[in-house]
Design a protein that fits this description.
The chain is of the alpha+beta class. A hairpin with a 4-residue loop joins strand 5 and strand 6.
Length: about 150
């Protein structure tokens, strides 16, 4: 009886230890505004936006727009680079294209903006586009491909 129990424990140990473990993390493309130096920059990081603000001077100094976020597999230990943003698949729009928002009953319906970036979100099975509205205080937000059309 004891031999059978040890045998079962040994088998269970090998089954559990043989599975591969894969780490994942979220990556962000951020637009960072330094209120004191009056500068801005874009960067890709694995820091969450709230952590990035705290580490780089706090909310009195730093403001952030999340331009994109995606999942990466692996880790960023030992100064490994963050994985690149997933490329859009068969994009209907390119960076610099003028687009009109098509979202009935939405605040931004019929607004005109310019595409700044695009990326594919596998979980949504859709391309996502970052749109800047220069005439509306330089507002930036993201839309699904189906919510955009070429500007007239």
């Amino acid at each position: 009886m004891i031999c059978i129990t040890r045998w079962k424990i040994t088998i269970l140990f090998f089954l559990l230890s043989s599975t591969a473990v894969v780490a994942e993390y979220r990556a962000y493309e951020l637009e960072v505004f330094d209120r004191i130096a009056n500068t801005s920059r874009k960067l890709i990081t694995s820091f969450s936006p709230s952590d990035f603000i705290q580490v780089n001077g706090g909310p009195q100094r730093i403001g952030i727009i999340i331009r994109a976020s995606w999942i990466c597999y692996g880790d960023t230990s030992l100064y490994k680079k963050v994985c690149p943003i997933p490329k859009a698949i068969n994009p209907r729009f390119q960076q610099g294209d003028r687009v009109q928002i098509v979202l009935k009953k939405h605040l931004t319906d019929q607004w005109l903006g310019v595409i700044e970036n695009s990326f594919f979100r596998p979980g949504l099975r859709s391309n996502v586009y970052g749109v800047r509205f220069a005439e509306r205080g330089n507002l930036y937000t993201r839309y699904y491909e189906s919510n955009l059309k070429k500007a007239p």
